Amino acid sequence: MKDIRTTVIGNATGDPRETQYPNGDISVMVRIAVNSRYYDQDINDYNDRKTEFVNVYARRALARNVLASVKKGQPLVATGRLGSTEWTDDDGKPFFSLTLNAETIGHDLTFGTSAFTKPAKAPKLADVPDLDYDTGEIKPAPTGQDEDGYDTDSLVGDVDADGEAAERALVGTP
C-alpha cells in the first residue's frame, strides 16, 4: 500500500505533549491549525475556509528537538505520512481526526526568524561510568596500572630524547 506524503503548514495550537516509553524512546504530539483563504469573486475579496486541525506525531531525535524548539502559536511546516483516525464517543457520536507521522518539522520562516542549534552529542562510551550490575553502584575508575603492576600514570622516562624506548622507572611500588 502506498503512503500519502504531504506537507502541512499552520500554527501550533499548544506546546508539544511528550509520551515516554519503557525502552527510553519518546514521542511527541503537536496539534497544528491549518487556515487557508480563497478569493471570492462574488464579493471581490478573500474569505477564510474552515480551520482544519492536524495531530502531528514525531519520534526519537525529532521528538526531542520538537520539545526543545516548538511553542504554542508558532508557525510550523511539517512533512510526513498522512493518516486519519475515526471513533465514536459513549453517546454514539462519530469523530474524525487527521494525523501526520512527521519526518520533518520546522518553523515557517515566512513569519519570523529562527536560530539553528545542533543538539549536544551523546556521551562517548569512555565517558559513561562502569556500573556494578548487582548493586547499581558506580565502579571505581581504573588505577592506571599495566599488567605488570606498574603505575602508568606516574611513569617517567618512557621515551628518550631520540624517540627510542627507554627503561621504565617505577615511581612507587606495584
Quick structural summary:
With 174 residues, the chain is mainly β. Helices cover 6% and strands 38% of the residues.
Descriptive overview:
With 174 residues, the protein is mostly beta strands. It has one helix spanning 60-69, and strands at residues 4-12, 17-20, 26-34, 37-40, 45-48, 52-59, 75-88, 94-107. The chain has a five-stranded mixed β-barrel. A two-stranded antiparallel sheet has the order 4-5. Residues 154-160 and 165-174 have low confidence and may be disordered.
The gross shape turns out to be: elongated
- Based on helices, strands and strand pairing, what is the structural class? mainly beta
* Amount of helix: under 10%
The N- to C-terminal Cα distance equals: 68 Å
What average pLDDT do the residues reach?
82
Strand content: 35-45%
Number of H/I helices: 1
Number of strands: 8
Contiguous uncertain segments of 5+ residues = 154-160, 165-174
Secondary-structure element series? EEEEEEHEE
Rg over CA atoms, rounded to whole Å, is 29 Å
Main sheet record: 5 strands, mixed, barrel
Q: Strand sequence of the main sheet, in spatial order? A: 1-3-6-8-7
SSE blueprint:
Layout: E1 4-12, E2 17-20, E3 26-34, E4 37-40, E5 45-48, E6 52-59, H1 60-69, E7 75-88, E8 94-107
Parallel strand pairs: 6-8
Antiparallel strand pairs: 1-3, 1-7, 2-3, 3-6, 4-5, 7-8
